[in-house]
Each structure stands twice: as structure tokens, then as C-alpha cells.
Design brief:
The complex is a heterodimer.
Chain A: H1 5-16, E1 22-24, H2 33-36, E2 40-41, H3 47-50, H4 54-61, H5 64-81, E3 92-96, H6 99-114, E4 120-123, H7 124-130, E5 140-144, E6 148-149, H8 152-165, E7 169-171, E8 176-182, E9 185-190, E10 194-197, E11 200-202, H9 208-213, E12 221-233, E13 241-244, E14 250-253, E15 258-262, H10 287-300, E16 308-320, E17 326-329, E18 336-340, H11 348-359
Parallel strand pairs in A: 1-7, 3-13, 11-18
Antiparallel strand pairs in A: 2-6, 3-5, 4-5, 8-9, 9-10, 12-15, 12-16, 13-14, 14-15, 17-18
Helix pairs in contact in A: 1-8, 1-11
Chain B: E1 3-10, H1 14-25, E2 30-33, H2 63-74, E3 79-81, E4 85-91, E5 97-103, E6 106-117, E7 121-123, E8 136-138, H3 139-149, E9 157-161, H4 165-175, E10 180-185, H5 189-200, H6 211-222, E11 226-228, E12 233-237, E13 244-247, E14 250-253, E15 256-260, E16 263-265, H7 268-272, E17 277-279, E18 286-288, E19 301-303, H8 313-330, H9 336-364, E20 378-380, E21 385-386, H10 387-390, H11 399-406, H12 419-426, E22 443-444, H13 445-448
Parallel strand pairs in B: 1-2, 1-6, 2-3, 6-19, 8-15, 9-10, 9-15, 10-11
Antiparallel strand pairs in B: 4-5, 5-6, 7-16, 12-13, 13-14, 17-18, 20-21
Helix pairs in contact in B: 1-2, 1-8, 3-4, 4-6, 5-9, 8-9
Classes of the chains: A alpha+beta, B alpha/beta.
């Protein structure tokens, strides 16, 4: 369930191994966060893990093994699919402007190196040699040679085509109405059809918790409305992924020439008639987010100032109760798998490969750090 | 510093002017924002103040609109913000509307208790082979050049399409000294005549509105301009600019082409607010739904003029009056009963004008006559997306999904031009079209950054 990157890629992997797979989505495939995100391939420890204390940073560092796998998965994806997804891995810079931010970078890089990631600290001068568009105010950067970006518009679309060719049954615009567990099987019903499956995967992004509720299960994923910005197309100037260690920024340039500027700035989620967050209307742009986001972009790369903004878009992703993704089998419900909760573009192909492998019976230790079992207590009184 | 108003009106055409005058009469603090330096809208697009054009808009058809414009311009208590685009509209948590408006001099924000959107319409963009060659215009674009700048964009102009307005534009072009090679109607003369007769009873009270077309025909006859029927244009030819048009009956040499298939409402701001919309007339596009006081589905957000469906300047004027009284009553500046009495004649007037607009819609219906697209015909000219790229993904998916994988609609115009074509190709009456996004017009990043 969920025709996003993880759902389609898992189906593709499983179908290639001969499994009989169906993918259902209430809308078109790849139209949620998989297609709405800006396509960063980020392998440095994310800024969001650094701003909430050491414990979280420590825990997040342990996901570095997944990052290493993701680097290799993205490196081979275009060849595996035999299609151009505009994947570039020209390196990424996480910049710092103050002494405090430089100190944070050093700590971060030490953690990453201990986990075997190839990040290194460079000074402002070297950063500007690599990336001449950077401002004089940049005093240091964490440089990862593997980082880059892919065209989020195309990735899920291409994987869905591959899944279809390998024999997976794709059902866009088929909303799941109910899921029942009958003996050792799951019966998934849509308006027109019914599917029996020995295993199911719920990978519905922000909708995951809704779908899991059909099985009387809690999945502690919370919807988050984010803001992204696209400029008009300009000549290629930014071949890297640019992030900031102390301020919210991610910036890259698409194959078509647009600069995509984001970095985790909030948008305002819409409320339904009962005053609850709704996932069925786009979040609204918060002016302060927009202005703040663009300010960081100009401070980091001054040439951005004169370029026209053509579109600010908001999209909904999901974040887990402890900020780490939730990927794996639900302990209370054997055969029911779940995947979601942040970094799911960068880590998506890897999650999909590992889920497919696990579903086929080979246990994956790499997924232990993100396993749903850490929230098993929430389902003590749930399930059936 | 944010300026606050009781009412902000987007659009200084007849609807915006009429509403502003009504609201000002009711002593409500009103601002009118328009992309043009001066009021008038497209119908009375004014030349720059330093120009003197003898006989500008002297035709008696325009008289009531010119009179309205003069009254509006004389009313100094209405705040006028010209040369500004409203690029964002949102509702703040305190219930006020916030408008982000931009100009070459930068950005400003205003707030208002009520907003009226009377943003007019634009020509329906119709892709056909050769339509992106230099020298191809929308007919409305040609008319804007003529009205505001006295520019005649060619010496051998061909107008082509299905909308009778092309007769008026052709007549205005020849009267201004331009050369018109031909006016090509896609539909047979009989079709137009039949639709006219079939509807003559319900539009009987407004048949005089059709007289300008009859006068235009006489003008064209006098100047020896060919008017061909049953001559759908198929392609525009030329290497680096327009050289000829091909129609079903042959080829006509020309140096400029004006395409005239009808008009679609500007809808980006109401859609940004998630107001309820409906598929507009045969030309396509989106009309904003509204109640009898011109209030949209969003409380406090009003719409008037072509925003509610293309019906012409006089209907816009009537709806502007209705919206003005509706807003006035909601803000307590006039009792609802008194407002109802005052709008009665405007409502009656609007009803009969809408009947005439439907007649015109039927006569001008472009749907059977859209030119066939070739594989290399660009559907989205901002992003260079050709028909061949779109065809393979027309598999039942939504317009947004096609946009995502093809980039159709991702460019500078935000899909204003290609959306009607894409929706036509998708042929799904329930598709809500592209999600409207900020900003409605491109804006330099330095203007937006804190």
C-alpha cells in the first residue's frame, strides 16, 4: 500500500525475485512526498539531528550504515533501471558561517568518520574553490564527495514502470477501504477489488498511520508540512548539494536548470471542520518561512538574489516520534510491514531493497536501528 | 509596516471600478490593485499618460464604460495601486486576508477584512503547429498593443479562430492603418447563424450588443478584407518568423497571426485560496463559484467580472456593483434589505447579459475546431514540452501527475497557458487541474528574502 518510492521499489525488487506483488495507491503513483520532495541525496548527518542534544545525534549517527548502503544503491540505480534519472553525485557541502557552527561541524564529522563515512572538514577558501558561488561569509564546510541529487519527478515514475515490466500489478487511484487479517493472510479491499496477501507493506507516507489504523495499530508517524521553492531555469552553476549546519537550507540545481531551495522550513497544515490536521488539502505557505528560507539561500550563495522565484510549493511528509525512520515488521502483527518517517528519498531505494530481502526470508541487521519494535509498547493494547 | 483596508479589490477593470465606487459611497476604506499603471482593465486599456490618442475609445459601445472610468479616476478617496501584481493571497490566523503585492520597485504586503477578485480573463492559448513562431499573437494581445500603444503588429495580418471578437479586432486594426489579409472562422457560417437564431429568443433583449460585430463586418467589407468561414487553421508556417497560415482551403501569406478561440478566466488567486471552482464555458478554464452577493465559497472572499465566468464588460460592471453592496452589507455599512433593493436592477441586467454571453459561447464554441497537434507541437511553451512527451502518460492520471513527470505547467506562466489544453487532452471532468501555487507571477528572490 502506497505507490511512492518505497512501495514501488519494494514491488520491483520482489517481482524480480518472482513474488506476486500488487501496489495500491489512493491517487496517482509518486504524487506524495516521493514526488514532492526536492531530491536531495544527503549522506551527512542531518542538521535536524544536531539541534536537539547529544542523545539524538548519537542515535542518528548509528544510521550511518544505512547511508553507506544508500550511496551504493543510488550509484547503481540508473544502470539497474536502464534509464536516466538525472542522478548526480558531485559532492555536497554543509556550510558554516560562525565559529560555533564550525565547532558543530567538527563534532559531526568526527562522528561520521567513526562510522565510516568519507566526510571531511574544509575551510572557506577550499569550499569556494570547489563551489565558487559560495559567499565570502562561509568559513568552513563539511564535504561529502558522494552527496548529490536525483530528479524526484522521475525516480518513482521510472521504478513503477520497471515494477510493471517485471510483472507487479499496479493499481493507481484505488483507495484501500479495509484490511482484514484472516488466519495467516491479509485481505485488502478496494472499491472494486479484493486482494489476499501473505505479507503487506504500508508505505503511505503521512497517511501510514491512517492505513495502519485499519488493522487497529498505532504507527507513531506524524504529518509535517514543509516548504520548497523553485526558481526559473538558469545556466548550470550549482553542481553540488548545498546544506547549512546551523540554519535551515538545502539547495541544488535540477537538470532542467531550476534551483530548488528548501531545508525543512514549515508550512501551515490545513485543518478539517473538526479542527484536526487534514492531509487532503495542501498546507499553506508561511510567509516567515518563505522569507527566512530565501534569506539563508542568498547569504550562502549571493547570486541567488537576482533569480526569479517561480513557485513555492508545500508538501506533507511524516516524521516519527523519535525522528528516526520506522521500517520493518510490526511485532504484534507478523507479515505486516511498515516503512516511513523521514529521509525516505535518500534512503528509499535502500529501505525497499532491505524490506524485499527481509520479506523473502533473509533477515537484515541493517534495519534493526529503524525497526518498529522500539514502539511496540504503543501496540500493547492494540491489534487483534 | 502593513497597510490595512476594509476592502482590497484585485483588478481595476469595470467590475473593480464599480465595486470600488459603491464601497467608497458606503464610506469603506478601499484599495484597488492592478498590474497596469492606470485603471480600465483590458477593455479600456489606457495609453501611457504622455500619449495623446485622438478619438481613443470614442466608439459609442464603450461610452458607459468610459463614463465609469472617468468617475472612478476622479474619486480620490479610493486608494489606487497601479503597476503592481498580487502574487500571493492568504488568510491569516486572525481572519484577515493578507495580500503580497509586487512591482519593479519591490514587494509590499497589505491586509484587508474583505477581498474582491475581479482579475479578468486572458486569451485561450491554442497550440497548433507553428504557434510559437515570432509573429504569432493572441488576438487579445494584438488588441492590447493597439489600444494602449497604437502598435499595429503587421501589414498582412491573419486573424483565425472561432470567436466573433476577431471581427472587431480586425476592423480596429484596419481603421488604425494596419493591413489585414484575412479573417478565418473555423466554423461554417451556417453554424454561427443557426446558433444565433436558436438563441435569439432568450437573448432577444441583448441583440443590440451584437451590432458592433455587424458594423465591423461592414468596415472589413469596405476595406476589402476577406472573411472566410469553414476555414479552420491547421498550421502556421515560416522558418524564423511567420510567413503563412495553412487552412483547410489553402494557404495565405501573412506577417502576423492573431489567434482568437475565446477567453478563460484568471483563476490563480481564488484557487490559491482553495475556493470552489467550476469548469467554465466551452473555451475551458475555471470560473469561481459564488452566491447571489458574489461571495465565493470562502467566507469574505468575493469575486466579480470574468473571474466568475467570461461574460463581457457590461456583465462585469453589473457584478461589481452587486459585490460592492454585498460586501457593504456584510461589513454593516448598509442594511441587507437596502442592499437588496439597490442591486435588484444590476441583477436583472446581469441575468440578461449572461444569457447573451451564453449565446456568444455557443456561436464561438471552439471545441470541434481545435487544430490537430503534431508530435513536435509544443503544448507547454515555457518548458518546451511537446505533445509527444505528453501522449504516453495520458493513461488516466491527473493533470498534476502529468505535470510532475513531463514538466508541462511548471514554467514561468504557472500553467496558465497550457492547463486548458492538458485538461482537454485528459478529458476527465473531475480533474481539479494544477494545484495553484505562490507566487502568481515570478518575483526576484531578493524581493522576498527577509
Amino acid at each position: 500500500m502506497g505507490g511512492g518510492l518505497i512501495g514501488c521499489a519494494t514491488a520491483w525488487r520482489l517481482a524480480r525475485e518472482g513474488a506476486k506483488v500488487t501496489v495500491l495507491d489512493s491517487g496517482d503513483f509518486g504524487m506524495g512526498a516521493s514526488g514532492q520532495n526536492a531530491g536531495s541525496l544527503h549522506f551527512q548527518l542531518e542538521r535536524r539531528f544536531l539541534e536537539n542534544g547529544d542523545a539524538l545525534a548519537e542515535q542518528a549517527t548509528r544510521t550511518a550504515a544505512l547511508n553507506r548502503l544508500a550511496i551504493s544503491d543510488w550509484s547503481s540505480l540508473e544502470a539497474d533501471l536502464a534509464t536516466n534519472l538525472h542522478i548526480t553525485m558531485n559532492g555536497g557541502l554543509m556550510v558554516a558561517e560562525t565559529a560555533e557552527e564550525c565547532a558543530l561541524l567538527e563534532l559531526k564529522i568526527a562522528r561520521e568518520n567513526a562510522e565510516g563515512l568519507r566526510t571531511r572538514m574544509i575551510d572557506g577558501h577550499e569550499a569556494r574553490q570547489i563551489a565558487p558561488y559560495l559567499s565570502e561569509a562561509i568559513c568552513a564546510a563539511g564535504y561529502s564527495p558522494d552527496e548529490g541529487h536525483a530528479d524526484a519527478r522521475l525516480v518513482t515514475h521510472a521504478i513503477a514502470i520497471a515494477a510493471d515490466k517485471t510483472g507487479a500489478l499496479l493499481r493507481p487511484r484505488c483507495r484501500v477501504q479495509s484490511i482484514r487479517r484472516v488466519c495467516r493472510e491479509y485481505v485488502v479491499r478496494t472499491a472494486a477489488e479484493q486482494f489476499a496477501a501473505s505479507q503487506i507493506l504500508i508505505a503511505c507516507g503521512a497517511w501510514t498511520a491512517h492505513v495502519a489504523a485499519m488493522l487497529n495499530l498505532h504507527v507513531p508517524l506524524f504529518p509535517v508540512g514543509l516548504l520548497m521553492n523553485a526558481t526559473e531555469r538558469v545556466a548550470q552553476v550549482v553542481p553540488h548539494l548545498v546544506q547549512h549546519v546551523g540554519r535551515r537550507l538545502s539547495m541544488k540545481q535540477t537538470h532542467s536548470g531550476n534551483l530548488l531551495i528548501g531545508g525543512g522550513w514549515p508550512s501551515r497544515m490545513a485543518l478539517d471542520a473538526e479542527g484536526r490536521f487534514t492531509l487532503y488539502r495542501p498546507p499553506a505557505v508561511i510567509e516567515a518561512s518563505l522569507r527566512g528560507n530565501l534569506r539563508v539561500a542568498i547569504d550562502v550563495a549571493p547570486m541567488v538574489a537576482t533569480i526569479n522565484l517561480v513557485r513555492s510549493w508545500t508538501g506533507i511528509t511524516a516524521i516519527s516520534a523519535d525522528q528516526l525512520p520506522i521500517v520493518g515488521e510490526i511485532p504484534a502483527m507478523p507479515g505486516c510491514w511498515v516503512a516511513g518517517g523521514g529521509s525516505a528519498f535518500t534512503l528509499g531505494p535502500t529501505f525497499a531493497r532491505l524490506i524485499a530481502q527481509s520479506m523473502s526470508g533473509t533477515k537484515c541487521e541493517e534495519l534493526e536501528i529503524v525497526a518498529p519494535s522500539r514502539f511496540a509498547h504503543l501496540n500493547s493494547f492494540m491489534g487483534q | 509596516m502593513t497597510d490595512h483596508y476594509d476592502v482590497a479589490i484585485v483588478g481595476g477593470g469595470p467590475a473593480g471600478q464599480a465595486a470600488a465606487l459603491t464601497l467608497d459611497d458606503l464610506k469603506l476604506k478601499t484599495v484597488v490593485i492592478d498590474e497596469q499603471p492606470q485603471a480600465g482593465g483590458q477593455i479600456l486599456r489606457q495609453p501611457p499618460q504622455s500619449f495623446r490618442i485622438p478619438g481613443w475609445m470614442e466608439d459609442r459601445t464603450y461610452a458607459p464604460l468610459v463614463e465609469l472610468l472617468r468617475r472612478f479616476e476622479a474619486r480620490t478617496s479610493i486608494h489606487w495601486i497601479g503597476s503592481h501584481s498580487v502574487i500571493g493571497l492568504r488568510r491569516e490566523p486572525d481572519g484577515l486576508f493578507a495580500l503580497t503585492i509586487c512591482s519593479p520597485d519591490g514587494l509590499r504586503s497589505i491586509t484587508a477584512a474583505r477581498v474582491l477578485i475581479a482579475a479578468g480573463c486572458q486569451d485561450l492559448a491554442v497550440p497548433l503547429p507553428g504557434w510559437t513562431l515570432p509573429g504569432v499573437y493572441s488576438a487579445g494581445g494584438m488588441q492590447a498593443l493597439l489600444k494602449a500603444q497604437r502598435i499595429v503588429p503587421g501589414e498582412q495580418i491573419v486573424l483565425a479562430g472561432t470567436h466573433p471578437l476577431q471581427l472587431l479586432i480586425a476592423a480596429q486594426l484596419v481603421e488604425a492603418g494596419g493591413g489585414v489579409a484575412a479573417v478565418l472562422f473555423s466554423q461554417p457560417h451556417g453554424t454561427m447563424l443557426k446558433a444565433g437564431i436558436r438563441n435569439s429568443l432568450r437573448a432577444f433583449d441583448r441583440l443590440s450588443t451584437a451590432f458592433p460585430a455587424v458594423r465591423a463586418l461592414a468596415t472589413l467589407r469596405k476595406h476589402g478584407v476577406k472573411v472566410l468561414y469553414n476555414a479552420p487553421i491547421q498550421a502556421i508556417c515560416g522558418t524564423d518568423r511567420v510567413a503563412a497560415v495553412q487552412h483547410s482551403g489553402g494557404e495565405i501569406a501573412c506577417d502576423a497571426v492573431g489567434l482568437c478561440y475565446g477567453f478563460v478566466s484568471q483563476s490563480s488567486l481564488p484557487r490559491m485560496m482553495s475556493a470552489k471552482m467550476r469548469r467554465a464555458g466551452p473555451a475551458g478554464g475555471w470560473a469561481t463559484l459564488c452566491d447571489e452577493w458574489m461571495q465565493s465559497s470562502i467566507q469574505g472572499l468575493y469575486v466579480a467580472g470574468e473571474t466568475t465566468g467570461v461574460a463581457g464588460a457590461n456583465a462585469a460592471l453589473a457584478s461589481g456593483n452587486i459585490a460592492g453592496f454585498g460586501i457593504g452589507a456584510e461589513l454593516g455599512a448598509i442594511s441587507r434589505d437596502e442592499a437588496a433593493r439597490r442591486v435588484a436592477r444590476h441583477r436583472a441586467n446581469r441575468r440578461s447579459l449572461l444569457r447573451f454571453a451564453r449565446l456568444l459561447d455557443e456561436i464561438a464554441d471552439p471545441r470541434p475546431f481545435f487544430p490537430a497537434l503534431r508530435d513536435d507541437t509544443l503544448v507547454c511553451r515555457c518548458e518546451d514540452v511537446a505533445f509527444a512527451q505528453i501522449g504516453p502518460v495520458l493513461d488516466g492520471r491527473s493533470a498534476n501527475a502529468v505535470k510532475l513527470v513531463t514538466r508541462c505547467g511548471m514554467g514561468l506562466c504557472q500553467g496558465r497557458n497550457c492547463e486548458p489544453t492538458l485538461l482537454r487532452l485528459l478529458d476527465n471532468p473531475n480533474d481539479p487541474g494544477f494545484t495553484a501555487r505562490f507566487p502568481a507571477r515570478p518575483v526576484p528572490i531578493s524581493d522576498l528574502a527577509t
